[in-house]
Every structure is written in structure tokens, then in C-alpha cells.
From TrEMBL:
It holds the Pfam family oligo_HPY. Residues 5-257 form the ABC transporter domain. It is a peripheral membrane protein. Keywords: ATP-binding, Nucleotide-binding, Transport. This is Peptide/nickel transport system ATP-binding protein.
Amino acid sequence: MTRLLEVRNVSKRFNMGGLLSRKSVNAVVDAGFALNSETPEIFTIIGESGSGKTTLARMILGLERPSAGDILFDGQSTDTVRSRAERLAFMRKVQPVFQNPFETFNPLKKVDRYLYTSARMLLGAKTEAEQEKAIDGALQKVGLSLKEIKGRFAHELSGGQLQRVAIARALITEPSLLIADEPVSMVDASLRMSIVNLLRDLRDRLGVCVIYITHDLATAYYISDRLMIMQKGYIVEMGPARAILDNPEHPYSKLLKASVLPIDDAGHGNLEPADRSVANAAWSSAGSGAMQERADGRLVRG
Ligand SMILES: Nc1ncnc2c1ncn2[C@@H]1O[C@H](COP(=O)(O)OP(=O)(O)OP(=O)(O)O)[C@@H](O)[C@H]1O
């Protein structure tokens, strides 16, 4: 099996403050998982605010360096991606989709400019015709066309359309891995499922692997193949998504599930946690024991 991504014992510690008031935060502690090229999947990272999801994503994207451990993409350590050419080659294969499409796009800039820039800089498309072909192809994959969005500003598009444009921008280089950090949290509830379904479509039609980062168990249940639950920087449970969400084992996973609406609500637009206080109570029970393997393939922290 060929590894697309391998995260090996990765930790990130942020040091803050001056010499006299030095503080540090262990944002990610000894994280490990792998994605294979042959089986494109939606690998979901879930956890409460501050559990380390974004820091882990930023390390995979090469935006943050691990304090320990190694991240390999296509067998090559991302730490060795140094020159501009190497960085561009890496960015062609690994693309981010961020949370807030209204922040991704400058309100004073036409949204198509972002697409032209990606086609020119990342894909290396030289002529306008080449760029437009790549852009229109990417927009078609998300159910839009260049004709529809050309010359328009962010405020002239809905949140859902704008997030589709953001995903199209990420698709221009035909990446093998998309890292979508809370891609639906700023989108209207009524449009969320269409974005979530789009991610699933990209996996099925284009064979793109997706790392889907969310707080939301309902959409996670709906689209994930595998799931990783993080608490205070630690992975506490990881494995087949439905098995974990149907029958969580780690105390934090159980409490997280208990704090949200029934899983039957997935796909009905009502995705807000019912009671965050239950999950918040589990913050105090972060475990640092070893991961133990279960018969169904899941790993649970002891
Ligand atoms: N640049 C930074 N400097 C200092 N601390 C940071 C930095 N980035 C993140 N942290 C801290 O690391 C921890 C993990 O943060 P992170 O943003 O990765 O969590 P998260 O699970 O993505 O949260 P959210 O769901 O709110 O985005 C938090 O305690 C956060 O305050």
C-alpha cells in the first residue's frame, strides 16, 4: 500500500511570554496516522475548541513546523520542502480550504482573480485560454462555471457559492489531498449539507483524499470514512467513523457524543450541539496512556 500521508509521532509546543514569564502550550502531542493513496477517504478530525485540530492541519500544510516527529507526503518529509519550486510542487498536491469564505476572499477583489492567480502561479498555465480552461474545469467540479462567477465580488455570491469557489480554487491543481478546516461552520445551515456532499463527491469522482476538520458530529457521521477524536492535543480515539460514533469507547468520545443532537439529525441542517457543558466537563479527563488496538481496528487511548 502506498502512503499518501504519514504523520509520525508529531508534537507541537508553542512557547509564549518573555524570559521571566515563560509559558508553553502542548497543542499537539504525539499524533500519528496515515492516509493511503489507493483508498481515497474522508478522514475527519473532531474535537472541542483548542484540542489541536488546526495546529495539526497547519503542520501538514507546512505552515507550522512540528516540535517533534515527522510528516511525510508521498514518502518525502515535508521538512525537506525548502526551495520555492519544492514548495509550489507540494502546494499543487496538498490544498487547504478554510473556514470562512468571506475572509478567504478580499471584498475589494473580484473572486475570479484568485482563481487566475492559482492557475498561473501554482498550475503554471501561461496563456489566458489555458488558465480559463483549468478554472472552468475546477468550477464545473463544484457545480459552477467561470461564466457564472466572472467579474463578481464576494458579497455578490452566497456563502455556499463562495465556499464552492474556494473549493474550486483548491481543485485547480488537481490535488491528491484537501485539508478542509471547518469548511461549513460559516455557511448557512441550509447549505451545509450541499458542501459536505460536495466533499464526498470529490472523494468518489476524483479520488481526492479529504481531511475534514470539524466540531460537528452530525456531518462527521454523515461523510467520514475514518474519524480521529482529539482532546487537549491528544488523539483519544481513532478508527472507522460510524463504529466510533455509534459506540464510542473513550470517556471523552462518549461525552462528546452525549453533548450533541442525535445522529439521526445528520443531513437535516440542525447541527448545533445541544449541550456543550457535558463535553466541556470531559476536558478534565484527558488521558495520556498508550493507544490500544481493538478488534474492529479502532485505537483507543488507555
Ligand atoms: N500560534 C500559537 N501560539 C500559541 N498558542 C497557540 C498557537 N496556535 C494555537 N495555539 C494553542 O494551541 C492549542 C490548540 O489550538 P488549535 O487552534 O490547534 O485548536 P483547535 O482544535 O483547532 O481549536 P478550534 O476548533 O477553536 O479552531 C490552543 O490552546 C491554542 O490556544
